[in-house]
Amino acid sequence: MSTAFAKIVGGKIVAYPYADEAWRRDYRVVSLPADPDDATLAQFGAARVRAVERPPAGEGKQVREGAPERVGDQWRQTWIVEAIPPDHPNVITERNIRQQLESNLDGLRPLRDTSTTLTTAQLSTAVRLLARVVIGLCRLALDRLDAAD
């Protein structure tokens, strides 16, 4: 885990992460040592933010970094685990699975003619489309099982 810094004013974080560019903008003639101690950082209104391991998201959840929090005399990274909003672009709904399945099945329809000799590229495309159909059906089945629980 890497070290991050925050700019502190009046005991509150006003900039996080407080990176090299911001430091140089605020203190043009001051260079920090490679690994400054907490006292040195405090002299310039900065603090080290201790890294905390990111928790797993879990089914239907997403994890995002929250604002650091003060714990004793240290600032610590926080994580927020929340439900994925229904309008998130990665949310899989039954409707868009059905649309994907129909689209992929349309791509396979011309291959039903058994008298047609397929090229390697056509066969590869057909296998990919078929795999997408199977994966889509599995997702749909899993979503329905989850909904039934």
Mean pLDDT equals 80
The shape is: elongated
SSE order, one letter for each helix or strand: EEHHEEEHH
The strands making up the biggest β-sheet line up spatially as: 2-1-3-5-4
Radius of gyration: 26 Å
Tell me what the structure shows.
By secondary structure, the protein is an alpha+beta fold. It has two domains: 4-83, no CATH class; 94-148. The protein has helices at residues 20-26, 38-43, 94-108, 120-148; strands at residues 4-9, 12-15, 46-50, 61-71, 74-83. A five-stranded mixed β-sheet has the order 2-1-3-5-4. Helix 3 (94-108) runs antiparallel to helix 4 (120-148). The longest helix has 29 residues, at 120-148. The mean pLDDT is 80.
Keywords:
alpha+beta, 4 helices, five-stranded mixed β-sheet, 149 residues, elongated, 2 domains
Helix and strand arrangement:
Elements (H helix, E strand, L loop, with lengths): L3 E6 L2 E4 L4 H7 L11 H6 L2 E5 L10 E11 L2 E10 L10 H15 L11 H29 L1
Parallel strand pairs: 3-5
Antiparallel strand pairs: 1-2, 1-3, 4-5
Short recap of the structure:
With about 150 residues, the protein is an alpha+beta fold. Helices cover about 40% and strands about 25% of the residues.
